[in-house]
Amino acid sequence: xxxxxxxxxxTLFGLSSVIVVHEFxxxxxxxxxxxxxxxxxxxxxxxxxxxxxxxxxxQLALLPLGGYVAIEPASIAAKPYIQxxxxxxxxxxxNIIFAFILIGIALYMISxxxxxxxxxxxxxxxxxxxxxxxxxxxxIAYNSTPMEQDLNNLLQYxxxxxxxxxxxxxxxxxxxxxxxxxxxNSHPLLGPNIGxxxxxxxxxxxxxxxxxxxxxxxxxxxxxxxxxxxxxxxxLFKKANREQVSGPVGIITSANMAQSTSGAFFIMxxxxxxxxxxxxxxxxxxxxxGGHIVQDTVEALxxxxxxxxxxxxxxxxxxxxxxxFIMHITLRDIKRLNxxxx
Length: 342
Description:
Elements: H1 2-32, E1 39-53, E2 56-70, H2 73-77, H3 81-111, E3 113-122, H4 127-131, E4 138-142, E5 145-146, H5 152-159, E6 165-172, E7 175-182, E8 184-187, E9 191-196, E10 199-205, H6 211-234, H7 239-242, H8 248-261, H9 263-282, H10 289-302, H11 308-337
Antiparallel strand pairs: 1-2, 3-10, 4-5, 4-6, 6-7, 8-9
C-alpha cells in the first residue's frame, strides 16, 4: 500500500513538473515583453504559502496537480501580434527543451549499463509471466536466431512484432528448452500496436558515453519522437492514431510501469509526456495555445477583437466535446487494463 502511494505521489509530481515547465515558458516571455502576470502558482486551489516578487505572487497551492500563470487580459491584448505569438508558443518550446534534457539524462544513465540476455524480473500478468518465463532464465535464441551480445536486435524485434508468437530458446538450470510466447499487442509505456514481452534484463556496469555523444543521441531521439507524435496528432481522425492516445488512467498506469522498470525509463516516460503536452497544446483548438494563436491571427487580420460572447461560446462547446473525449479514452484505457484490447 505504501509503495502504491509513493508511486502515485511520484507520478503526480512528474506530471505537475510538465505543466509547471510549460507555464514557466509563458511566464518568462510575459516578463520579457512586460506583460502583467499577477500570479504564478504551483498547484491549484487555496494558497498554502506565497511570496510577492515585483507584480507577481509566487505561490504553492493546496492541490499540487500542475500549475498556472495568470496573465492580465488587457496587458497582453495591448501587445503586438508577434509578441503574443511568441508568448503562446513559449510553453510548447519549453516542454520540448525540457524533454531534450530529460532524454539526455536517461541516455547517459543507460549508457553506463550494458544489458545481458539474463532475465532480471518478470512483470506480473505479462506475456512472459503467463508463458512461464522466470528470473535468471537466459535467452540464447529467438525463432532460431542466435542471441548476440547486443540486445537491441531482440528488443527491436519484440517491439515490431505485436501479437506475434515467438519461440524463445532459454537456458534454465544448465538445461536448454524452447518456450513459445505470444507477445502483447500493446506496450504499457510505448502504447498500442507495439510488441510487449514483460521482462527486464540484468545489466552490467560499464563506462558512460561521452557527453557529446549523449547530446547528439538526445537530439536525434527528440527529433524522432517529435516526428512520431506529429504523425499521430496530425492524423487523429485515423483509428490507429486515436488508439495511441491515452487518458488519465492510461498515463498513470504507464507511469507506474516506468517506475517499476528503472529510473531511466521513468525519466524517458516524463520526456514523452512533455512532447505529448507540447503537441496537444499547439493544436489549433479553443482554450489551447494553438487556439490562442488562431484567435490572435484572426484578430490581427480582422483589425479588431472578436466578440467575447463568440469566444465564450466556442470555448464552452470545445470544453463539452473535450470532456466527452476524455471520458471515451478513459473507458477504453480501463478496458485495456481488464484485458480487452479492442
